[in-house]
């Protein structure tokens, strides 16, 4: 059995996965996804998922061993921001060609690693396997081991070729690479009772920076954020944290469970979207730290901070409440956002008339049902035609989704806001909630919508009547 096959089976058999917990041992080993069909990688392959999970480690070189198109399609596909190093935004690829397919690409890979180390001197090099190099039999583990010994630098193999499965599987395989080769390889200069890890937070548009000041105010140190705005050493030393928070369980639940098993780091799943959820996450972090030995006065300080920040946030949101209360939103996203954003919107009085659950776990769906009361507002797979019908019939005032469905909203002449990883605005924490309300208000009341909904001159008769409702051209 190959190392990749063994690793994929282990990931599929993840005991901390809520879906797996209701299955027998035999069912778990079959996997947690349907067999891939042609075109399934359009939503992201395993290589893409691994790159998404690891590329926000900002000071290392991310080298793609494969055709140049693999790096081109995966480069910078999320707005994961950095507070310092920019090396993660440089695209590195071995750019293998026909001769490499015939004779093998291992020597080319070794030379590429050497060139990166000589030119950039990164703390580590991450090497990503792709479909072509996996099929021709290139052993990236052996090459990385030899390169690490030769150059005295960590060279981390990420064995997640696209054909292995979906993007979500790739997220977990990326996490396995960290567990196997990075976590526990360095020691922090000092430890405190207030050290925590955060898993599955990618600092999209700088969202981590909206939350970190809250931790700083409490004296809590984020030892490692995996992986937004992370440094290699942060991840290598993350095994000394006292507690952890899981932001997106579908992506990196394997890291959370194994860190708890190996190093005794308890974790919980929470959200930084919305005022109530942010407050609850701060409380849970404080409780876990106190259970792990932190002074109990941390609980009182946390409540004082929550009271102050909630009052400040609501005061800033108040001008938007009358304008946004009762507005209807269609939410097309997945994972943790499928329920956390629902909760955030409902706090302000916005009605969520439907939310997608295609990329949500069983626990995510249970939370949606708890928040929204029933399953009638949950869409497992909403086709574009149905999206268009909902928006065209004015069943929703605005759609929040990813970029791929924005044109459905624009065709229906309905406001649209990006809520997925390509967004340019950060919506986490108390500051993020204020920004979310501001952006929704700006979109809903933008005068452009009144203008585009008017009939064009050629859609009117000589008396100015709208011919569209009378069968006109």
UniProtKB/TrEMBL annotation:
Pathway(s) per entry: Cofactor biosynthesis; Fe-Mo cofactor biosynthesis
A single GO BP: protein-containing complex assembly
InterPro entries on file: Nase/OxRdtase_comp1, Nase_comp1_CS, NifE, NifE-like
A GO term, aspect molecular function: nitrogenase activity
CDD domains: Nitrogenase_NifE_I (cd01968)
Sequence ranges assigned to domain Nitrogenase/oxidoreductase component in this UniProt record: 45-441
Keywords: Nitrogen fixation
Pfam families per UniProt: Oxidored_nitro (PF00148)
Record PANTHER family: NITROGENASE IRON-MOLYBDENUM COFACTOR BIOSYNTHESIS PROTEIN NIFE (PTHR42956)
Physiological role: This protein may play a role in the biosynthesis of the prosthetic group of nitrogenase (FeMo cofactor).
Family according to the record: Belongs to the NifD/NifK/NifE/NifN family.
Protein name: Nitrogenase iron-molybdenum cofactor biosynthesis protein NifE
Organism of derivation: Sulfurimicrobium lacus
